[in-house]
Amino acid sequence: MRPALFLSLPLWMAATPLWAQDCQLPVPDADDPAHYACPPKKDLQAVVAVAEILVVGTLAEPRSDTAYPLTRIDIADHPGARLETALQQAAGLQQFRRSDARTANPTSQGITLRGLGGNASSRVLLVLDDVPQADPFGGWVSWPGYDALNLARVTVRRGAGQVTSGAGALGGVVELDSLQYRDLLSGRMAYGSRDSVDAKASILRKLGEGSVSLSGSYARGNGFVPVVKGQRGAVDRPAPYEQAGLAVRAVAPISQNTELQANMRAFTDDRDRGFDFSDSQNSGVDASLRLVNRATGGWQWSALGYVQIREFANRFGAIAAGRNSVALTLDQYSVPSTGLGARVEVRPPLGDKAELRLGGDWRRTSGETNENFFFTGLIPGRNRRAGGQTDVFGLFAEGSYTPIDSLTLTLGGRADRWKIANGFRKEVNIGGTVRSDDIFADRSGWEGTGRASFALFLNDDVKLRGAAYAGWRLPTLNELYRPFRVGADATAANELLAPEKVRGLELGAGLETGGFTLGVTAFANRLNDAIANVGLGTGPGNFPGVGFVAAGGVYRQRQNLDAINSKGLELELDYRNGPFTLGARYAYVDATVDSSGTAVLLDGLRPAQVPRHFGSVGLAYDAAAFRAELDVRYVGGQFEDDINSRNLDDALTMDAGISYRLFDSLRLELRGENLFDTRVEAAVGSDGVVERATPRTIWAGISVGF
């Protein structure tokens, strides 16, 4: 068995706590390097280091990972898996809305964990090969861009205080690592309901001592009508989408222990939300260079530099009562933004019992929104420009010590200097006078991140772990400077927003015996200065920062709440017996708002878009030629709004798939999403109109691999 074979494990098998996976990462036999065997569980740290050097470009997994509630997800051999769908294998991880990237507005697709709530900005840090992935202007995630990647693995680390990852990891970190050093030619094409097409192709080739890969994806569909039956009007129609991505990666060794990794990817994403003037266009190009040195027994280090370029456009329409007409209200015709950054990490040689990680990073985001509004027909009356720049520079240190084989202690901290600069917002009457021209004062400050944790193996089967941690997130440019509208509701920006700061505790345990593994984690978090859209009034009337709000509409402003308190439980269970695999995930979250002042009406309420219950069960059978999978997911009821007046019902959905290998390189596939056509409520407006997520969708396709 080769060490790279763990990459082709099905998603339902790989989505287990890493510490609990038995014999998934074999190591070479000392006497016969061609033979691989399973090591003792307590030697898993060495296993990870050996396996990752062969397949991904990171340094060895840190010792501190033994104390994390950590989930590994493999999507390489899961037919038709979208990254955002695959991430549902991590208990409690959610996007701001239940819709996926085929119908949701891109600005609503931030991710979070542990009931910390949010608006559209992510409270979980997503990184690809160490590069932060949140949109530089808005903090959301452009999910279609990742379908084109050759990903070796996805790692979800829950909990804040991950000092080596940087600011933004309030609920945890999702790490994507690219595949390298393999010969692989693969392709997959599927045709589905509503004239949908989903295609992917990839070539990965070892060249000399290095490797190069080229991969791409394309997806399109006529879409479904988002508004539920019985509430539709003449304006409602299917919501089409078209998305594509391309990625290139090259790896070249420059010495025995050091390699240079070059990455570039581009994507484009066009969506429509099911009525006129609801289209969006999102595109981007990323490039990065990373040097990695893995000297055995010596100094290890990595150095990274990257650039992200984004362009976004979006239109909004106001739908009349009865949904029989729609009028253009806002044309956000250009939102250019840029992310720049660098990261360095050094690990000095300290022997077998200790590990020290030292380093620093810098990230700059800059961008602006350009939009026309106050339309008469299709003629805009006013124009707005708003934007700015943020910088975060941090230094970190993390040390892990293993005084005895069964115990690992970790202590880490980082200090970040942040700055918000060049903020502005200007509104003009087109062809006429300047209505406002605001230049906002620069601000700066210091924030800290820290984590202390332990991992104790009581025996070969049982592990206890715990941690206390702190983290923070800087407001995005979108939150600081851009007001926005959704239907009749209007939300004002707030250039004085303070950073969010989380403090938390967690305690967990894991059990493994035979093919059965169980991991459970209890946590308690307090997110101080949580940014939320706070309702301050109702229309009709004129309100500061947004202008006129019609009758039935709600006026809100982004504000720092006193806090969000969140406590809960996460559970992951896996059972394997021959070709059969069973996996179950459950998360319970009890979250409440702590607020005063203008937001006092929210005190004691549940944060918007935070359900109490998440659950999933997956069953799979994988024989030599035939494979079958069944996934059942449940999400509890949640509130659309901050005052808990609009309820989104709970939903139970089922996905399933079967495939048959005709030849060594050819497989036929049939799969279905939401097979029972459950109504999954994704949004409800102030007028009570409900939007739904993806209905039943059937796919038939083929896949090839050499």
Quickly list its features.
706 residues, mainly beta, Maltoporin, Chain A, 22-stranded antiparallel barrel, six-stranded mixed beta sheet, 4 helices, globular, disordered N terminus
What does this protein structure show overall?
The protein has one domain: Beta Barrel (Maltoporin, Chain A). Helices cover 4% and strands 57% of the residues. A hairpin with a 6-residue loop joins β15 and β16 (279-294). The strands form eight sheets. It has a 22-stranded antiparallel beta barrel. A six-stranded mixed β-sheet has the order 1-4-9-10-7-8. By secondary structure, it is mainly beta.
Average pLDDT across residues? Answer: 87
Question: Given the structure, what is the number of helices?
Answer: 4
Number of domains: 1
* Count of β-strands: 43
CATH fold-level name: Maltoporin, Chain A
CATH superfamily: TonB-dependent receptor, beta-barrel domain
Topology, element by element:
Blueprint: H1 11-14, E1 16-17, E2 27-28, E3 36-37, H2 44-55, E4 70-73, H3 83-86, E5 94-95, E6 111-112, E7 125-128, E8 131-132, E9 151-158, E10 172-178, E11 184-192, E12 196-207, E13 210-221, E14 241-253, E15 258-272, E16 279-294, E17 300-319, E18 326-347, E19 354-376, E20 379-404, E21 407-429, E22 434-439, E23 443-457, E24 462-473, H4 477-481, E25 484-486, E26 489-492, E27 500-513, E28 516-528, E29 531-538, E30 541-543, E31 547-549, E32 554-560, E33 563-577, E34 580-594, E35 613-622, E36 626-635, E37 638-639, E38 647-648, E39 651-663, E40 666-673, E41 681-684, E42 690-692, E43 697-705
Parallel strand pairs: 7-10, 26-32
Antiparallel strand pairs: 1-4, 2-3, 4-9, 5-6, 7-8, 9-10, 11-12, 11-43, 12-13, 13-14, 14-15, 15-16, 16-17, 17-18, 18-19, 19-20, 20-21, 21-22, 21-23, 23-24, 24-27, 25-26, 27-28, 28-33, 29-32, 30-31, 33-34, 34-35, 35-36, 36-39, 37-38, 39-40, 40-43, 41-42
